[in-house]
Amino acid sequence: MNITLLGSTGSIGVNTLDVVRQHGERFTIHGLVAGHNIDVLCSQILEFRPSIAIVADEQTLDRLQERLNEAGLPRKQWPELGSGPRDRVQAATADEVDFVMSAIVGVAGLEATYEAIKRKKRIGLANKEVLVASGSLVMQAVHQLGTELIPVDSEHNGAHQCLRGGKRSEVTRLILTASGGPFRETPREKLWRVTPEQALNHPTWKMGKRITIDSATLMNKGFEVIEACWLFDLPPNQVDVVVHPQSSIHAMVEYNDGSILAQISATDMRMPIQYAMTYPERDRAPVPRLDWNEARTWTFSAPDFEKFRLLKLAYQAQEQGGSATCTLNAADEIAVEAFLAGRIPFPGIAQTVEETLSRQVATKPATIEEVLEIDRTSRELARQVVAEPARVTVTMEHRDSNESL
Ligand SMILES: NC(=O)c1ccc[n+]([C@@H]2O[C@H](COP(=O)([O-])OP(=O)(O)OC[C@H]3O[C@@H](n4cnc5c(N)ncnc54)[C@H](OP(=O)(O)O)[C@@H]3O)[C@@H](O)[C@H]2O)c1
Questions:
Q1: Residue whose CA lies nearest to ligand 1 atom number 28
Q2: pTM passes above 0.90
Q3: Which of 9, 28, 101, 263 fits as disulfide partner to 34, beta carbons 3.0 to 4.6 Å?
Q4: Residue whose CA lies nearest to ligand 1 atom number 3
């Protein structure tokens, strides 16, 4: 199977290449698409010898060329090189490509993924912003063309596996598990003191920065609720979240007779990545299996929707429909950047998103260009919200005085 990997230098990208490395007989790499991380991309090119390699922009392309020269790779052996959105689309839609792993973070991966869907490439979908920002258009194309879209996010991948155990018409509920993040036990008023370093310290998963902060605020779980609604054609009130700190059960599906099927596996993204790449077959395990001789305890509890307001806002945005979830994602990305830069405190992320949502009128985008325009204006609004002096001063005072919300 010939693969284009969108986001090769990220956490999902690196894990995908490890699966490719372990199953050299099944997979080859057609395209590697990255942003700015030339060091990692260059070593991936040397190891996997793709036909095409794309970076975010022209300057990065110049640096990549220099690096390939320094590495001593003869020009004749270089892949075709390119940069920017159009070249990303080309890498994802080339005739030779059988499978596209969509693992760019943010809406930068939307267009290439959408075009690959339209060309009926089989898709492994990790880039959750694709469905959060543009679920209606993307799923319309998937259904119209019959494109296979296999979720890579561990929860949806788990649900995909559980759904193979019964009829879709008999499903009553989908249950997504959440680790609860590093602040599961932290009292609400102490969240004002949370530093970026603490928020980046996820208890069970090693991931990119954005998704790690989103896991700490439970925004990530909110995005997953939205994704699940689109992927499995369910209304938000049939998608539940349960806190399960051990992250061993990834998802559960309840059927109309009350039976629940759960998917359990090691907390390692190579498991869902490999499942998506080999589906409908299964291949040898890419990571050590769970050892049932070890004592273990699994716990479950309900999420705190007041402490983690972004989870509640995600349900509300999905209920509202149209572009509300696109704005939710765009505002969150800006707020997370501001938090990581020390410009707003941790609870300021939810405040920024809520305020942006209240100011942006939701519409129904009819094209990907319209989605990207809504994304752009939502970001602009969120930046304004972050920059409002009163807001920043008040929230920073909260942090210094450690008052409750
Ligand atoms: N990590 C996980 O366990 C996990 C689990 C479920 C879902 N996801 C989802 O999968 C996606 C990727 O997550 P991640 O954790 O792998 O993120 P990450 O480690 O931050 O990697 C992001 C990737 O996107 C690339 N990228 C960013 N901006 C780009 C641009 N403008 N053009 C081209 N490439 C660009 C980055 O390239 P450079 O690094 O070269 O700049 C990198 O390869 C996200 O949507 C995330 O929510 C991740």
A1: 35
A2: yes
A3: 9
A4: 207
